[in-house]
Specification:
Blueprint lengths: L15 H6 L8 H8 L5 E5 L6 H12 L23 E5 L7 H19 L9 H16 L3 E6 L3 H6 L5 H12 L1 H4 L4 E8 L7 H4 L5 E2 L12 E2 H7 L1 H11 L3 H12 L12 E2 L1 H10 L5 H7 L3 H4 L3 H4 L6 E4 H6 L6 H8 L4 E6 L2 E5 L3 H16 L3 H17 L2 H12 L2 H4 L8 H15 L3 E8 L2 E8 L3 E9 L4 H11 L12 E9 L6 E7 L3
Helix pairs in contact: 4-5, 11-12, 14-19, 19-23, 20-21
Length: 527
């Protein structure tokens, strides 16, 4: 019998008040939030991937500055805060502002109109958005006698979505006009907090607020968003036990699976605490199921805007390097693919050495999502055309059904190495390796390409739950299936995996040297 959930999980809830009043589980970050609000730095910026809890963080800060002490009862902040002063709060959620100048102006107009009514302001008919924002900040402070807290969530959303469209310049101009006011009103402001995913440094938030403190890489804030392993074990025991029972795992096995799927983010070279993606983790524990939640929420939609020919480059990013100066200060539009992939959550910090960050995929969920996203472009087919064959391939590999697996593989490769002109600069075997590894990664296998062992280099190792497939690829004009078989036997390619509990299957595969696909395959036995 599966035990009843002791926690109400806040799936899709971004309101701190609703979480607290509704009795939902809240992972207590209020000690870090108090430090942020009271550290003496007025203008602060935090960048984190989408669906990483930024909006709940902003909502919690709003409740704190509004002095809503009752919502914080029993939380760590109660031992730190003594005054609970109510301050005026101006909050903007730029994800509601669209991606065109008209929708951006409209959103700011509606928001400013509401604030003007709240403070009894009648703007002049000729007043521009910047004038109105200016009046709101000053009036809120003088009327209440308290400096204002200004919270700007997802500041980069209109800029990100308008990038590489005719609207981007006009959107940037509105930002420069409106947000220049923040610097001019310094004496009326208590605290300014800006969140985003990607960093556009050319707008006034960064060029005008030259004292803007970027806390994104600071060790004290490494876990301000997301959920640490320690917090998972402390707060989610009943849900982990339920998942374990459903899947026939031990508690520790369930933790290991959740870790492999959703953990692995690091945000500070000086505090490499492992952070789980909170959106995926909470959904997985609510459903008692390990699925790709983050990508299916639209996380990969902006990739083509910022990374060209992603299907060819994907293998180069895990691992890859980026200069400290670039990752910590550069504009996303000029920092290269690595910077965009880091800021948006596809890559994370793996290590840091002498001014250089080493980046890589954080976890299984992200790796699979990326490969699945690029597969249609690589195979020159629509995603709907390959889904059925992909799922059949995955099932066949899981069951060890080689004839069915090879039939699916043949269909997926077809004449892609010949037809995809973007591959023209690669030699033929390299093209096949790229296509095959992308297919296997996209369906969720563990893949190692050109794995070095004592006796040589294996073309590819593909792992599933119950099988390890050792693949040797040979072109027809390079000896084909016979040469592949002979090499596997001579170099004992299956030997290093014999200690693994999974069944080891060695496959010799012959590939057409003109790029027309898989010619023949053979299971190699008697090593």
């Amino acid at each position: 019998m599966v035990e009843t959930n002791e926690n109400k999980l806040p799936v899709g809830i971004q309101s701190f008040e609703k979480i607290r009043k509704g009795g939902y589980l809240y992972v207590d970050k209020t000690d870090i939030i108090w430090q942020l609000a009271n550290r003496g730095k007025k203008h602060n910026y935090l960048n984190r991937p989408r669906r990483f809890g930024k909006s709940v963080l902003v909502d919690t800060l709003e409740a704190y500055f509004l002095g809503k002490k009752e919502l914080f009862e029993g939380l760590k902040i109660m031992e730190l805060e003594t005054e609970w002063m109510k301050r005026p709060v101006i909050r903007l959620d730029m994800s509601c502002a669209g991606a065109e100048p008209d929708t951006l102006r409209s959103y700011l107009d509606i928001t400013f109109d509401r604030l003007e009514k709240e403070y009894g302001i009648t703007p002049k008919p000729t007043a521009q958005l910047a004038d109105r924002f200016n009046a709101i900040i000053q009036t809120a402070c003088t009327q209440t006698g308290h400096q204002v807290a200004i919270l700007i969530d997802e500041y980069d959303s209109p800029l990100q979505h308008s990038w590489k469209t005719p609207h981007h310049e006009a959107c940037t101009a509105i930002y420069k006009e409106v947000f220049a006011i923040l610097k001019a009103n310094d004496k009326y402001e208590k605290f300014v907090f800006i969140t985003g995913i990607t960093k556009f440094t050319q707008i006034s938030l960064f060029s005008v607020l030259n004292n803007l403190s970027n806390i994104s890489f600071e060790p004290g804030y490494a876990a301000i968003c997301g959920i640490t392993k320690e917090e998972v074990l402390l707060d989610f025991k009943p849900e982990i036990n339920k998942l374990a029972e459903y899947e026939g795992w031990t508690y520790d096995e369930a933790v290991a699976q959740l870790t492999a799927y959703y953990d692995g983010y690091h945000f500070s070279r000086r505090n490499m605490v492992d952070v789980f993606n909170p959106f995926s983790l909470i959904n997985a524990l609510a459903d008692s199921d390990l699925k790709n939640y983050w990508a299916s929420s639209g996380a990969t939609s902006l990739l083509p805007k910022f990374v060209d020919d992603m299907e060819l480059k994907l293998g180069n990013f895990d691992p890859c390097t980026i200069l400290r100066q670039t990752i910590e200060t550069s504009d996303v539009t000029g920092g290269g693919a690595e910077l965009f992939l880091y800021q948006s959550g596809y890559l994370t910090i793996k290590d840091y050495q002498m001014g250089v960050y080493i980046l890589g995929f954080p976890n299984y969920e992200v790796r699979q999502a990326l490969y699945e996203t690029v597969l249609p472009a690589l195979t020159l087919r629509g995603s709907g055309d390959v889904q059925s064959t992909q799922s059949s391939l995955f099932l066949a590999l899981q069951l060890g059904n080689l004839p069915e697996a090879m039939k699916c593989l043949k269909a997926l490769i077809a004449d892609v190495p010949y037809s995809n002109k973007k591959l023209a600069s690669m030699d033929m075997e390299e093209r096949y390796r790229l296509i095959l590894s992308t297919i296997f990664n996209a369906i969720g296998c563990q893949v190692e390409v050109e794995k070095m062992i004592a006796t040589g280099r294996i073309d590819m190792v593909v792992g599933t739950t119950n099988f390890i497939y050792v693949l040797e690829l040979k072109l027809t004009n390079n000896g084909g299936i016979d040469a592949a078989t002979e090499q596997m036997r001579a170099k004992q390619y299956a030997e290093p995996f014999k200690a693994d509990r999974r069944k080891v299957t060695a496959l010799a595969i012959e590939l057409d040297d003109m790029g027309k696909g898989l010619v023949e395959w053979k299971e190699v036995t008697s090593f």
